[in-house]
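sry for the spam today, last one i promise. struct tokens for design, 424 residues
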């Protein structure tokens, strides 16, 4: 039998079946036309779909790795911050020198740029000498790079704010639990928004005003937990002062230095460490001789704890700046706020801290306010688009259900020998 004749026979049989059953949309030669379209689409599909599938696979792989790195960065950021806070609490059992701990930890920032340059040598295809890399990264201070005048003018205020932020944070840990201090420090996000709105004239957002009000409410509730007296109110004031100086540091950085990439941030942190080593070293020396912060001998210092605090603090700063390159910036902020439940778990299990309902409510309000701060500027438009898409999908599903029921009714009527005439 001829193959062409066989195919024509099959097509004619299909046409008869469709004509007898009354298939809607039938016309003579329908099956042969459909087979031609199918063969043509099969012939064209390998050329058109393969590149699209390749790009989709690449985009899905990139998205997967970005989320995977984000998950690791979130865990690392929260773990490093929890570890730093808890080691400070342990160190306070035998060593009460918060300014010396701040100074010692800040000196470790000098290693930030060497760590960055080592990563550059290990991963970059076009490796540059360290002199060229320093010249490139020093442009954060201007086209001329870092000069002695800029070193004193630009680095001094940031170094003072950096020292104040960390020193007040460590002082607060002497008065409050790690959970309370980490929760109060998260209010710096609200202070950054208020300062940016006032000083930098950033866009006004009602939801962030609500978040700032929630942060202030949480601060007041935290102070009220012990009745506005004793070490509690002093600890709250110190933690809020640390959050305020941190917010001022970030706003001034954005005002004078703008946005910095990872290399420029590494260079800036190393310059801060050098400035701290040269100029701030006199402050712990003065406190030592005045016996404000005194220790018997250098061998008596808890070097293991001090190196642990400094190392985790350095790791936290590296992860915060590196995470922006590897994943979404919002995940870095989520990692910071996750330090609150992390510290709460350690305080509850190891130190057997009992949290009052007022403190739990204050911590929850501060966390909610922090998360509201993470909403993008176009969050309302994005929400409306999402709701409209849901409505469209629901309407499409209802239309499909009506169409299926109509076709089912038409088929049953034809099977019973009746003909349903659709209305125009």
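last one done:
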């Amino acid at each position: 039998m001829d193959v062409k004749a066989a195919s024509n026979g099959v097509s004619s049989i299909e046409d008869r079946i469709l004509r007898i059953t009354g298939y809607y949309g039938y016309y003579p030669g329908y099956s042969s036309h459909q087979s031609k379209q199918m063969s043509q689409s099969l012939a064209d599909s390998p050329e058109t779909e393969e590149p699209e599938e390749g790009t989709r696979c690449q985009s899905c792989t990139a998205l997967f790795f970005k989320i995977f790195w984000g998950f690791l960065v979130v865990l690392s950021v929260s773990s490093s911050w929890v570890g730093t806070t808890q080691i400070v609490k342990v160190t306070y059992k035998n060593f009460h020198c918060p300014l010396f701990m701040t100074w010692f930890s800040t000196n470790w920032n000098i290693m930030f740029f060497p760590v960055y340059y080592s990563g550059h040598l290990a991963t970059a295809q076009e490796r540059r000498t360290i002199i060229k890399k320093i010249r490139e990264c020093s442009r954060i201070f201007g086209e001329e790079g870092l000069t002695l005048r800029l070193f004193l003018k630009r680095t001094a205020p940031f170094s003072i704010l950096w020292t104040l932020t960390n020193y007040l944070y460590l002082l607060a840990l002497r008065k409050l639990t790690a959970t309370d201090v980490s929760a109060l420090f998260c209010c710096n996000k609200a202070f950054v928004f208020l300062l940016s709105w006032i000083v930098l004239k950033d866009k006004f957002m009602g939801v962030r005003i609500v978040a700032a009000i929630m942060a202030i409410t949480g601060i007041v509730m935290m102070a009220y937990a012990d009745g506005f007296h004793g070490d509690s109110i002093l600890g709250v004031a110190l933690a809020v002062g640390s959050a305020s100086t941190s917010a001022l540091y970030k706003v001034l950085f954005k005002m004078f230095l703008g946005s910095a990439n990872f290399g420029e941030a590494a260079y800036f942190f190393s310059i801060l460490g050098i400035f701290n080593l040269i100029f701030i070293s006199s402050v712990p020396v003065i406190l030592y001789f005045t016996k404000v912060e005194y220790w018997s001998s250098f061998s008596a210092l808890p070097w293991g704890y001090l190196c642990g605090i400094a190392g985790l603090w350095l790791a936290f700063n590296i992860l915060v700046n590196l995470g922006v390159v590897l994943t979404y910036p919002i995940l870095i902020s989520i990692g910071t706020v996750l330090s609150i439940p992390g510290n709460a778990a350690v305080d509850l299990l190891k130190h057997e801290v009992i949290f009052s309902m007022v403190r739990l409510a204050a911590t929850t309000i501060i966390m909610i306010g922090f998360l509201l701060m993470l909403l993008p500027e176009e969050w309302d438009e994005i929400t409306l688009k999402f709701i409209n898409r849901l409505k469209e999908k629901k309407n499409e599903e209802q239309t499909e259900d009506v169409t299926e029921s109509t076709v089912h009714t038409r088929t049953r009527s034809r099977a019973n020998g009746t003909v349903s005439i659709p209305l125009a």
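The mean pLDDT is 80. ok im logging off now
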